[in-house]
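User: I'm writing a tutorial on reading structure tokens. Could you give me a worked example: one chain, its sequence, then its tokens, then a sentence or two explaining what the tokens reveal?
Assistant: Sure. Here is the example chain.
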Amino acid sequence: MDKIEVIVEQTSTGYSAYAKNYPAFTTGESLSDLKSNMVESINLFLEMEGQGKSVSQHNLAFLIMD
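And here are its predicted structure tokens:
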């Protein structure tokens, strides 16, 4: 599986992110929280689509925007 690009932006309350090419987005108070939440968000989408696969943080490329 190719890496899934995740765009991360800092907010006043932590971080928000969305996955390129997937309808997945999330927030987190820390980058660690955000990464865990994004894995869960993408896996929920894959489960709903019946794709029979899952991702981990190793499958994601986090791109932090300024």
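What the tokens reveal: The CA atoms of residues 7 and 63 lie 5 Å apart. The chain has a mean pLDDT of 95.
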